[in-house]
Amino acid sequence: MPVGTAFHERTLALCESLNYREWSGYYSVGVYEMHHEHEYNAIRNSAALIDISPLFKYRVTGKDATKLVNRVITRDIQKVAVDQVIYCCWCDPQGHVIDDGTITRLGENDYRWTAADPSLRWFQQNALGLDVQVLDISEHVAALAVQGPTSGRLLQAVTNADIAKLKYFRVTRGKIGSVPVDISRTGYTGDLGYEIWMPWKDAVKVWDALVERGKAFDVHPAGMIALDVARIEAGLILIEVDYISSKRAMIDSQKYSPAEIGLGKLVDLKKENFVGRDALVREAKKGPGRALVGLEINWNEVEALYDKMGMAPQVPSMASRVAVPVYRNGKHIGKATSTTWSPTLKKMIALACVERPSAVLDNVLEVEMTVEAVRHTVSGKVVSMPFFNPARKTAVPVV
Q1: 175-179 contact pairs (CB < 8 A, 24+)
Q2: What mean pLDDT comes out for the span 291-298?
Q3: Is the confidence at residue 388, as pLDDT, over 90?
Q4: Cis ω on the peptide bond leading into residue 386 (within 30° of 0)?
Q5: Burial 361-386 (b: 16+ CB within 10 A, else e)
Q6: Which of 202, 194, 137 is nearest to 176 (CA)?
Q7: If 0-12 CB within 10 Å is exposed, 13-18 middle and 19+ buried, where does residue 304 land?
Q8: If phi over 0 gives left and psi between -120 and 50 gives alpha, with beta otherwise, what is residue 305?
Q9: Quick one: the chain helix, strand, coil %, rounded to 5?
Q10: Nearest to residue 233, comparing CAs of 146, 346, 334, 144?
Q11: At 78, is the pLDDT very low, low, confident or very high (cuts 50, 70, 90)?
């Protein structure tokens, strides 16, 4: 049975829909109201509070902590400064992605590592022979994302930390409601946003302080359904949806290299040896077989399909995580894994993994669409990602 997160006594009272999802053994709000429209609009137009406590969180310390991190991830942690955050992935010996997450360098040999899946055993296996301690702090550290255009001003009003000068993917410290917190300029929405890391036992105090001061900034709690739309607009992948962990894959085609899911830039083949490096060197010589692309689906063709059936076009209110085939000139070349109507862009968009020769900007592919149990295809143009990328996301100073 799932259990509540550190914020459950607050989120439960606010969740009018009683729409919950299970996330890593915790109750996670799908949508607070009966529809996610207001929650999505908070992410894009004001400020949203998103409970991300179910993330797996690890603290890596000790003389060889840096050596362990560098042994596991595909990026070079030696290039990362203290109080900097990086997004990274880690692979099995065959160069297939196990998981992706963030690492915050808190000290010379002190790291906070987040993961979507349980990773303690993998980290410990790679720590054999090293002077390093890997602690699972998932149940001791709560996390809350504050995302949206007014999130920076809200935090400036509620904390003594220097938010105005906090750079993208950096971390600072301060207090919120008398609780010591770490605040990183990170998030999963592709917008201006922050993630707050705090002691589990004091999480409600932080929530209350943000809600009270946040009234002036139109803050709203937001659930996973609104977050799903935002992360697709941002071109951000989701494990077990846009790719499958190599540890869970049942066949070879379910295993992905970093380059095949858009994470090729996170691989540094010039650094010291890391798990999967030899396989990724071989792939780099011949090129990956597949590539992640953004597709802009032709809405006129969608309307025409429904019109032919005598129906008004059905705009999907929720993002779809159901994979559908993608073709080029009638030949199956991949699949669209995440699809949504973008309220901000007024377009239907999708993330797709396709054969590399087809992953060329402006290529027109065909995406399967079912209307009244009849399968059709509509065209989808390959476009650059992220679909939505506002300047405020990385701007300094924050205003």
Answers
A1: 176/205, 176/206, 176/209, 176/210, 177/205, 177/206, 177/208, 177/209, 178/205, 179/205, 179/206, 179/209
A2: 98
A3: yes
A4: yes
A5: eebebbbbbebeeeeebbebebbebe
A6: 202
A7: middle
A8: alpha
A9: 25, 35, 40
A10: 346
A11: very high
Calculate ∠ Cα 186-190-196, nearest 5°: 25
Which phi and psi angles does 170 have, rounded to 5°?
-125, 165
Q: Length of the chain in residues, anyone?
A: 399
pLDDT value at position 82? 98
What average pLDDT does this structure show over 300-313?
94
From the list 168, 225, 232, 233, the residue with the least C-alpha distance to 195 is 168
Residue 316 has pLDDT above 90, yes or no: no
Given this model, what pLDDT does residue 337 score? 98
Residue 181 main-chain phi, psi, to 5 deg: -140, 155
Q: Is the pLDDT of residue 92 over 90?
A: yes
Tokens of 150: 């007014």
Tally of CB atoms within 10 A around 227: 27
Phi, psi (deg, nearest 5) at residue 318? -110, 155
Radius of gyration of the chain (CA): 21
Query: Rounded distance, CA 239 to CA 120, Å?
Result: 17
Tell the residue number behind the tokens 């429904």, with chain if given: 306
Whether the model clears a pTM of 0.85, i.e. scores above it, the answer is yes
| Percent of the chain residues topping a pLDDT of 90 | 98
Q: Which of 217, 213, 261, 267 shows the shortest CA–CA distance to 239? A: 261
- Alpha carbons 368 and 388: distance in angstroms, whole number: 24
> 311-348 in b/e burial notation, b at 16+ Cβ within 10 A?
eeeeeeeebbeebbebbbeeeebbbbbbbbbbbbeebb
- pLDDT value at residue 399: 84
Residue 315's pLDDT is what? Answer: 78
pLDDT (tens digit per residue) in 162-181: 999 999 999 999 999 999 99
Residue from 114, 136, 115 nearest 124 by CA: 136
Cα–Cα distance for residue pair 280/370, rounded to 1 Å: 38
Is the pLDDT reported for residue 314 higher than 90? no
What pLDDT score does 205 carry? 98
- DSSP string of 321-371, one letter each residue: ---EEEEETTEEEEEEEEEEEETTTTEEEEEEEEEGGG--TT-EEEEEEEE
